[in-house]
């Protein structure tokens, strides 16, 4: 099934095969095909990259182990459009958040994607937090975030009567977006410009020959049925001119299986699960803005998120978890369960800024996992976007640690990748 599917795909890419003459006879009996661009991973970043490359006239093939797009981190986040306040000045997170936010609002407006610029209040609930709030404002201004306003608590509480705080930083450029509608639009536009999607298709590794990456590909069903008694073998080898490893949670694990990519170029990864709880037993939304506490170790704190239907969500928290083996990560076999007992940790955190939260009003929502490059009590690590200038392999771009603000940054990252690495 995989071979027939990919045979059909590569027939549409025949016009790009003549310039790549890589010998891969070392893996005998495995079908081999040449293609132009391969994007590994159909999350929001991978979709944005695929669309951008297709708009530039590239022949793009997107591979994902899931039966459809956006089944991992992209469908398990807060759907917030960030302004660009939190991230160190001159970092990739700051750069792509600010640029990506502009591109995302523009795209949503032009393509009728449900979204709303509702603004955010970052609040200090204790006097010791006020200096950090001023630091955030200063950093946001340095990052090019317009419209930031420092408010006294009384002013913020007039805006939000259910809020309790001493001071607040208003970020009017923050908002929310329907992530599924966004991804559906990116898929459609990419397909309209010739991109092909192959779901239930897993990249299990690769090898370097003549300084090009050859991808080892297997059907997801084959991988699920693998008995682990014998070495995992590919069902097909793809020979792309250009590869974007946008595999999200499994991007580092996959890169480790690219034989010939030096291990010093693959950062250690850490996983942080975050749970969301929804507000039940109320017909009136208590807030009109996003409400955020000061950032905490590993995240932005248990905050208030509103979706476009008016539902109130609290989260995510930070729970450092162990990883899974490579194959399980390729198949997205992570634990996304929400432990009901964790809500007892939420109540005191939320009541710091929402003291009227009633007992029994939190219901389990969903969980997501952040692909982080730093662990507990370590300073946050920036996005890593690695091209040939870093690892020396022609046509390979690795995207590591694309956690928050990955959604907001997606179109900025795509613009950067298509412009810097794939010219011609």
From TrEMBL:
SUPFAM superfamilies the UniProt entry points to: FAD/NAD(P)-binding domain (SSF51905)
Enzyme Commission number(s) of this protein: 1.1.99.2
Cofactor(s) of this protein: FAD
Family label: Belongs to the L2HGDH family.
Organism: Malus domestica
Main EC class the enzyme belongs to: oxidoreductase
UniProt name for this protein: L-2-hydroxyglutarate dehydrogenase, mitochondrial
Pfam families cross-referenced by the UniProt entry: DAO
Catalysed reactions, as listed in the record: (S)-2-hydroxyglutarate + A = 2-oxoglutarate + AH2
Protein origin, superkingdom: Eukaryota
Domain FAD dependent oxidoreductase as annotated: residue spans: 36-419
